[in-house]
Each structure stands twice: as structure tokens, then as C-alpha cells.
Amino acid sequence: MTDSSMLMSTEAPTMPSVTLSNYEPATRLGLKYEVFLARMSNSDHILYRNGYTSGHPLLGGLHLSMEPVSGWSIAFSRLVQFGGGARGNTSLTDLLRAFFSPSKYANFNDPNNPNKVENQEASFTSTFLFPGKVPFAVYAEYAGEDTSRGRSYLLGNSALSLGIHFPLLWEHFDLTLETSEWQDSWYVHEVYQDGMTNYGHVTGNWGADQRVFGDGVGAQSQMVRIGWNTPFGGLLDLRYRTLQNQSYGVIPYKRFQDLTLTYSRPWQQNTVGAELEGGRDVFGKSFTRIAAFVRYGEDGRGLMSALADSTSTSEESAEKKGEIFVDAGANMNNIRVDLTDGRYKTTTPSATGAHFAIGARRFVSEHSDLGARLELDDVQG
């Protein structure tokens, strides 16, 4: 995600950290890894043995990715928050147990249990690059703040984010759209009661800062950004963000809206620019901001370079690159309702509904292709 990653984004101040990763992808699968350990800001609200302890929690991260075929990558990421104050004596064995078997060693019902060693998040992500006449990237993130049903492989309090990026429209424009929806309990925790934050700001999705601190309600966010390579030089960006917190809490949140206009241009291998922002927050109050910035050694933006690489062989025929397709038909379905309380399980009778889809695919061999598709199905209304 370029705007709304659930695990690690640019919302919070940078943490001092040490990172180990491979510089070049390994094997034909394009394997990459990154392991890091960072120190978070001080917290006075770390629960420990029926009281509180103060200290700097640590944040550990693992990222594994692979690109099995050109133009498609998948990845797994994991964050763990642990230590801090009197909890800083967590052993490596306990940490590894909680890391690899969180349902058994990390998710105790008793928050005062000293063996409850960590706060955790995880995500699966995928990116697909389409190298057609109008190239674009489709990407998705499925994340969880905890585990579900006592199974380490099931993500709890789930979050789903989707995005599409067109790096070149009508020769002078680019377009990015992203949307996210997450359930409750994100960035809050019963042991680390300042949550997954650094100096009061969440480490992930920007939308989770638009609420009363510590109120872990779910929300939906959307973003659209249009860039224009101006004829007078530089890049003009117009970005619109909106957010709606869920209404099941005690606070009557309003819809957040934000409009930002940014102009930037290269200067001596760097980028300089200015920004004008205005909008209305979740409490109905308006805000404005004017800023100037310098970005040192900037080498392009987001997925543009990857898309340029994937479309550089323009001499290839269109049928060897990929195609847009649609399909339509019918589906047969039933719905099983299985709530947390196992006593309430119901299954509806089978029914039929309409189906429509639009997608894009690129060819990876003589007999196989790979793509992404948006499906619309009527499932019992």
C-alpha cells in the first residue's frame, strides 16, 4: 500500500532500529527477507503483575516475499511488540514461542500473566503488474491484529486493503485509488495500553489516528490521488482522503475529509516542494495546514519504476503481454453463520445469483497466465 498500510506506514515518527535483509533477490523465486528490531517511545501504561511499569517497548518485524513469476509478488509480514520496563526480561525462547505459536503462548485471557509476552500484527500482501498499453498495478493487503478461534494461522480483527495505480494516463497524469476496512481492536492492547503507537501516533494506517486515543473502533478509509506532470516542470498532486469510524462506540464520530494539493520539482538531485491541506476532522472541526519540504536523494515514486521495467520491452506484441477480460454468468451459494459462540450455527438453503467480473492477466508461459479480477456477485441480496 502506498497510503494506508496496516502494519508499517509513515504516520508515526521513525524509530531507532537495526535491520538485516538481503540486497539481491535469492533463487529463481525472487526470495527476499527483512528482519528488524526497533525501540519505541516510552510508555507509562504497560500492565505488569496487577500494576504498571514504565519503559520503552521493543518492536520486532519479519518480512518475507517472493516473485515466482515476472509481474506478481506475494509476501508475509509480522510485527511483535514486547518488553519495556519490568517486562524487558522476556527470554528469547519465550519470544520465539510466542512468535511461532501465538495462540498458545501469546494470547492469554489473563493480561496480568507475565508470560503474555507480546502484542502482535500480521499481514499477507500481493501485487500484480499489468504491462498493457495502459499499464497499472493492483495490490492487496489482508491483515490481522490477533489470532482467531485459538488457531495461529487464522487472523483475528481482520483488515482488508485494496489499491490500483495507473502510472501513466493521457501521457501527463497518474492515478492511485486505495480503500481499507478494519475491524475493532487495531493499535490498542490490554497489556501495552498505549497500543501499537510511537509518540502517540499509530505505526500503521493513517485513519486510525482520527479517533479518540485508545478507542479501538473499526473504520473504513478511502483515498484517491491524481498526479500531473506539468508543462512548466515539476509534479502537481491532488489527493482526497475520507474516513468513517464505526458507530458502535460511545463517541459520535463524523466523517473525516481531507484535500491536499502538493507541488514538487527536482533540485540538485533532490526534490523540493510545497503543500496546502485543508479539511474537517472526525469531531466536525475544520483544519488547514501549509508546509514546505525537501526530500533528499529521491529516486522516483512508488510502483512507477517497477511498472516502467515491466513495460520496457515495447517491441513485444500485445498478445504476449496481457489482456483485459470480462465474464458474466450465475453462481450457486449458501451462507453459513458461525459466530464466536459455537452454539449458534446456521446454514441457509442453496440459492442462485448473478455474477459479473472484470480483470486483467499477463502471460507467463505458452500455456499459463496470471492476473487479477474484481468480481461482483449477488449472494442472497
In summary, what is this structure?
The protein is mostly beta strands and 381 residues long. Helices cover 6% and strands 54% of the residues.
Characterization of the model:
- The protein has 381 residues and is mainly beta.
- 6% of the residues lie in helices and 54% in strands.
- It contains 4 helices and 22 strands.
- The protein has helices at residues 92-100, 102-105, 304-310, 318-321; strands at 17-21, 32-39, 43-48, 51-55, 58-69, 72-82, 118-130, 136-148, 151-169, 173-182, 197-198, 201-202, 219-229, 235-245, 256-267, 270-280, 286-295, 322-333, 336-338, 345-347, 351-365, 368-377.
- Strands 1-2-5-6-7-8-9-10-13-14-15-16-17 form a 13-stranded antiparallel β-sheet, with helices on both faces. It has a 3-stranded antiparallel β-sheet with strand order 18-21-22. A two-stranded antiparallel sheet has the order 3-4.
- A hairpin with a 5-residue loop joins strand 13 (219-229) and strand 14.
- The longest helix is centred in the N-terminal third of the chain and has 9 residues, at 92-100.
- It is globular.
- The protein starts with 16 loop residues before the first strand and ends with a strand.
- Residues 313-319 have low confidence and may be disordered.
